[in-house]
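Table S4 entry, Prepilin leader peptidase/N-methyltransferase.
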Amino acid sequence: MTEFIQVLDNQPALFIGLAFVFSALIGSFLNVVIHRLPVMMKREWQQECNQYLNEYQPEIVKKVGEQTLNKPIDSFPETYNLVVPTSACPKCNGKIKPWHNLPIIGWLMLKGKCATCANPISGRYPVVEFLTASLIATLAWHFGPSIQFAMAALLTFGLVALTGIDLDEMLLPDQITLPLLWLGLLLNLNDVFIDLNSSLIGAAAGYLSLWSVFWLFKLLTGKEGMGYGDFKLMAVFGAWLGWQMLPLVILLSSAVGAVVGITMIVTKKLHANNPIPFGPYIALAGWIALIWGQNIVDWYLVNFV
């Protein structure tokens, strides 16, 4: 194993290429997570609601009926998780052949259409696969074959899934954010990215920074400006990168979010009162800080302080 790592270290192009191919396969699985995890969560929530209503307000269950409560997701099979059922066309239910599931290539082979019924297949699938592969290849170039690369890749996989889900559902699931938070703290027990004190303070400061903004905005306007998932995602970056990187992450995410939001309003693709997910901007800013954060901070200190 050590010899193999040395070979990869001596041949960076090989390592980057392998990282690209492997992470494209992971990107294919992330498409499944983005699509299915929200459905699984909704089912769990509905089951909890049904259980509560049956226990405390059975007359409502009798009146409304379980079928109505389950209506938003009743079209999905009874057994539905990240593995079962296997991939199929949502229109004709035709099973997707293994070679058509190849990342990026499979979509191109099918020309973006189902092989059975020619129903269009969303271009988001190859985009997610290519984006994931490109991000991990960039990490491979930056970190080389190291523990930092392996852990940063795990973080990136989580960020891609969170971004896709937040864009679709305005939701950042605890099932992803909380494990990433604890993983960051555990890694920095050995100073993998930052010392433990900075990591602990960063996790708390990351959460409280947006939590404070949330409550200040709510007190002033009576509206909720962001969700609790955003607080937790900021805590993730505080745990991984330390409190020192939080100002950069907040500044970058706010700037990108403002530019995108204003552009969408000006082009009339978004109403001024409609909410937009903030998680993708935090994820992008945090990923940039993961690689180039210290360089950006050093450049700012040299030129403006």
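The chain has two domains: 8-110, 146-304.
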